Amino acid sequence: MQLLIMSDIHGHKQRFTDIVEHYDTADFIISLGDSELKHKLLQKYDIIAIKGNYPFDAGFTYEHVMNVEGRNLLLTHGHRYRVKSGYDKLYYRMLESESVLALHGHTHVPHIQKIADRYVLNPGSLSQGRGEHPDTYLLLEFQNDAVLATWKNALTHETLDTKRLDV
User: Side by side, which strands form the sheet with 28-31?
Assistant: First the structure.
């Protein structure tokens, strides 16, 4: 099972469609907010869309818990959990929702952090990477005993980093 995860697209429709079409075999495509894309376009590609803090994400939910191969994933933009100040609030929400992975955006920085036996991941920004970080997205590959998390360069699809998550 493969998930394609993007966040903070900020209206870059062409880059979004190029990546979605490049991964046309992905089982699920997720936008973690601040897409600034039209609802109709997201529906065309059957995107699971989360509302961000940007005003153009009307009509979406602020979070969603989905089960993938027996593992709960918490999907959120992150601003309501103040992820720029740490992960305490998000971690407690993970416990409440029995999620082993939390996926968020908002900071525009690709990131992974293990907290106890759970993981928090950020795909980075599809169009406005911050600091030394290029524009990125994330692929999750679900295997029997682990999940492979691979960050990709949004322009070249080059692999930037891969981590094995034992969940």
Answer: 48-49, 28-31, 2-6, 136-142, 147-153, 159-165
